[in-house]
Every structure is written in C-alpha cells, then in structure tokens.
Amino acid sequence: MRTIICLVISNCFMTYAWYGHLKKNTADTPLIRLVLISWGIAFFEYCFMVPANNKFGQLEGFSAFQLKTIQEVISLVVFGLFAVFFLNEPIRWNYIVAFLLIMGAVYFMFYSPAPKG
What we know:
The chain starts with a helix and ends in a 7-residue tail after the last helix. The chain has helices at 2-19, 31-59, 64-85, 93-110. Helix 3 runs antiparallel to helix 4 (93-110). By secondary structure, the chain is mainly alpha-helical.
C-alpha cells in the first residue's frame, strides 16, 4: 500500500510539473525558465517515486513490470483528473474506451494462472 500511496503523490507532482503551465498563457515565458520551474517541482516527484520503486515496491513483492504498470495506470488516472478539473478538458467516449483497454492490459499483467494439479 505504501508503494501505491507514494506513486499517487509522485504522479501528482509529475503531472503538475509537466502540464501545469498549460493553464496559463506561457507562450512568452522563456523556455529555460519553464524547464527550471518544472525541474524544481519534479524534485518532489522523485522524492516519492524512488522509494516507491526501490524500497516499498520490492518489499511489497511487485516485479519491475508490475511497478511500471501500476505507475502508468496511476499516471493516467491522475492526468485524467487533472485534465478535466484543472485544465477543463472534456471527456470523450474514445478516451474512456482507451482507458478500459489499458485496464484490460493491467488485468493480464497481474494474471497468474492457478497451478494445475
């Protein structure tokens, strides 16, 4: 559970670092300034991402493939909420279908057939 909590917090910082500037008109802002601001925010992303993967994930028994899959799903959920509520983007039916297909991939990532016998 610590892995999931750290990944959620990490992805909140990541999403804001990458996409937060889209809310404001930053066309006239120098690129180097945007990069440095994003790096400053991303520092906090790493403060949660590294322990989630390197410490908690291994202790909680996740494989590297499973950790990456969990991270991607959390990233999509966090971004979806961010896009709708912060950027005021509409939700379209094809976004929902695509997300459901990704959830199907998650099912197979964690699928473990019952041993025969």
